Amino acid sequence: MPLVFEKIGIFPSIYTSSLRFSTKLSSIPVAMASSLFFSTPIPTKLISKQKPFSHHSSNPLLPQSTIKPLRSLVVSSAAAIEAETETSSSNSTPLKSLPFRVGHGFDLHRLEPGYPLIIGGINIPHDRGCEAHSDGDVLLHCVVDAILGALGLPDIGQIFPDTDPKWKGAPSSVFMEEAVRLMHEAGYELGNLDATLILQRPKVSPHKESIRANLCKLLGADPSVVNLKAKTHEKVDSLGENRSIAAHTVVLLMKK
């Protein structure tokens, strides 16, 4: 009874409707074959006869051009994943140098009386502000997260945890400075940034240009590459009821 390859999306070129297996099966590792190709598990007899995989095996079932990329996919061990995580978390240059990197940031804070409302480093007059461990600047927080995300680094909550008393009431410009430093250290600069504020009140339009100007200053960016929009939430849920404020940011980083 022949074993049959299934056509799978990640390897659309590697399939056949009636591929018969002989002793050449030993040239493919069981883990690779069973996890990537077969809908039916390989019989125990075949598994027990498996030999250690070698790309020097004679007459391999698949050509070397196919086996090598498959091998690199299958052989990602826990140690390799752990090493990659440690490298990404250590403020070092990203593992893979790409010409462009894209990051998305999101943040939301409750609005409560007795707190200042700070957006993009600008104090906005309002009867309530963001309840947060730092100054609660929802815009700067999501910009920082977008930059960190583009660099493949941990989020703002991991780098500046709210369990650390030294960040209590800290201005979010401190977080921005660190994110910009990491961006330059990794060899990137800002290509462009697009941010959206979501809040019911107060109106942002009278303050939009001062917010954008300060954002450009913190980023060291030309105003032509920094865009800021503001939306209400049509009185829906906590955002629309003036009980919270949110922001989304997308950044494009370019290799210097």
Give a short summary of the structure.
With 256 residues, this protein is an alpha+beta fold.
Description:
Keywords: Chloroplast, Isoprene biosynthesis, Lyase, Metal-binding, Plastid, Transit peptide. It comes from Solanum lycopersicum (Tomato). InterPro entries: MECDP_synthase, MECDP_synthase_CS, MECDP_synthase_sf. Belongs to the IspF family. The chain has helices at 30-36, 44-48, 64-74, 78-89, 138-150, 156-159, 173-185, 208-219, 237-240; strands at 100-112, 117-119, 122-124, 129-130, 188-198, 226-231, 244-255. It is an alpha+beta fold. It folds into two domains: 1-75, no CATH class; 87-255, 2-Layer Sandwich (60s Ribosomal Protein L30, Chain: A). It has a five-stranded mixed β-sheet with strand order 4-1-7-5-6. Helix 5 packs parallel to helix 7 (173-185). The chain is globular, with a radius of gyration of 26 Å.
**In CATH, what is the class of the largest domain?**
Alpha Beta
- Give the count of structural domains: 2
By CATH, the superfamily of the largest domain comes out as 2-C-methyl-D-erythritol 2,4-cyclodiphosphate synthase
Question: Count the helices. How many?
Answer: 9
Describe the sheet with the most strands.
5 strands, mixed
By secondary-structure content and strand pairing, the structural class works out as alpha+beta
Label the CATH architecture of the largest domain: 2-Layer Sandwich
Helical fraction equals 25-40%
> How far apart lie the N and C ends?
58 Å
> In terms of per-residue confidence, which ranges show pLDDT below 50 for 5 or more consecutive residues?
1-63, 65-90
Strand content: 15-25%
Q: What is the C-alpha radius of gyration, as a whole number of Å?
A: 26 Å
How do the helices and strands follow one another from N- to C-terminus?
HHHHEEEEHHHEHEHE
What do the pLDDT scores average to? 74
Pathway: Isoprenoid biosynthesis; isopentenyl diphosphate biosynthesis via DXP pathway; isopentenyl diphosphate from 1-deoxy-D-xylulose 5-phosphate: step 4/6
Protein name: 2-C-methyl-D-erythritol 2,4-cyclodiphosphate synthase
Pfam family, one: YgbB
Subcellular location: Plastid, Chloroplast
